[in-house]
Specification:
The chain contains 5 helices and 8 strands; from the N terminus they run ααββββββαββαα. By secondary structure, it is an alpha+beta fold. The strands form 2 sheets. Strands 1-8-3-6 form a 4-stranded antiparallel beta sheet. A 4-stranded antiparallel beta sheet has the order 2-7-4-5, with no helix packed on it. β4 and β5 form a beta hairpin. α1 packs across α2. The longest helix has 26 residues.
């Protein structure tokens, strides 16, 4: 079991939260839930309703769009962030490549914090823009 202090120290290393103060990270740490998945578990299914963000503590996952592998993520990376911002269906499937430990944050809990913590919202927006740019670069390379 990961302590709140360990969560804060870990979250400082996650790009999504790198510019957030320790005090604010402590608030976020209190709303995270430690979850574990086994190798080959389907953590997220494309098209399902999404309401949680996952931050990988240990292990790796594959992100799939249809049957195509888009990318692989590991410790200190995150997925499901779009579900925190909207109520749209999941845009990809996520499968555990290994046994995996994640910190999970529900939309409901995260929304309560975002009302007072605009820096966190800005960090999420920057992260989404970065991922969009990466997807555009990948798409441009495929069409050339």
């Amino acid at each position: 079991m990961i302590t709140t202090l360990e969560k804060v120290l870990f979250l400082k290393e996650v790009s999504l939260f790198k510019n957030i103060s320790s005090e604010r990270l402590a608030k976020i740490a209190t709303i995270t839930k430690e979850v574990e998945f086994q190798r080959q578990d389907k953590i997220i299914n494309e098209g399902d309703e999404g309401d949680s963000l996952f931050i990988i503590v240990d292990g790796t996952v594959s992100i799939l769009k249809g049957k195509e592998k888009i990318t692989e993520l590991g410790p200190k990376e995150f997925f499901g962030e779009m579900a925190i911002l909207d109520s749209e269906p999941r845009s990809a499937t996520v499968i555990a490549n290994t046994d995996i430990v994640c910190l999970m944050i529900s939309r409901e809990d995260f929304t309560e914090i975002l009302i007072d913590e605009h820096e966190i919202m800005l960090a999420i927006i920057k992260s989404l823009v970065h991922r969009l740019r990466q997807a555009n670069i990948k798409s441009d390379k495929k069409t050339q």
